[in-house]
Design brief:
The chain is an alpha+beta fold and 169 residues long. It contains 6 helices and 5 strands.
Length: 169
């Protein structure tokens, strides 16, 4: 089944990078925050039905400048599917809400994980989310006018990039 899709990047605040650099097990919380975000979006869309997004997430731990900068590339279908495999079009992504949901869930999860070891982290995380009222950076423009070849090239890029030495660690 051909379904339009969108390429979205989820980025953390640079103030959080040192925590992820010291404890790489925290990187899993990026995936969990994206899952939480998409689940919240389908709750609103579903009302009386359970829907799920289809998406693929790839972790990148370094930016182009080779500095530690963890973020996710997510290729998400512009449709949601119910438990009977019925597809419903979903091509409106409320980025303001997505940024806030992602930031909230990531900060909340990190507080639960880090605060028992580092008491000051809760205060730090609260101040950070207060300063970042609009959430963390999330980018995913609609694929208007993209050809099948351009979409295939995007997927090849994400897969190739994931295999780079700095990423594949």
């Amino acid at each position: 089944m051909k379904v339009p899709h969108r390429h979205i990047t989820f980025t953390i605040a640079k103030e959080l990078r040192p925590f992820f650099d010291v404890d790489r097990s925290l990187l899993d919380y990026l995936f969990k925050a994206v899952e939480f975000t998409f689940n919240k979006l389908t709750e609103r869309a579903g009302k009386n039905k359970e829907y799920e997004f289809g998406y693929i997430s790839t972790l990148h731990t370094f930016g182009r400048d080779m500095k530690f900068n963890p973020y996710l590339h997510v290729i998400v279908a512009e449709g949601i599917i119910d438990k009977n495999n019925n597809l419903k079009k979903y091509d409106y992504f409320p980025y303001e809400k997505i940024r806030k949901l992602f930031a909230y869930e990531l900060a909340d999860s990190l507080k639960k994980e880090i605060s028992p070891k580092l008491k000051e982290f809760s205060i730090f995380a609260n101040k950070l989310t207060e300063r970042k009222k609009n959430g963390f950076y999330v980018h995913g423009p609609k694929n208007q006018g993209k050809t099948q070849k351009e979409n295939e090239d995007l997927i090849k890029y994400v897969v190739r990039y994931a295999g780079h030495l700095a990423i594949s660690e």
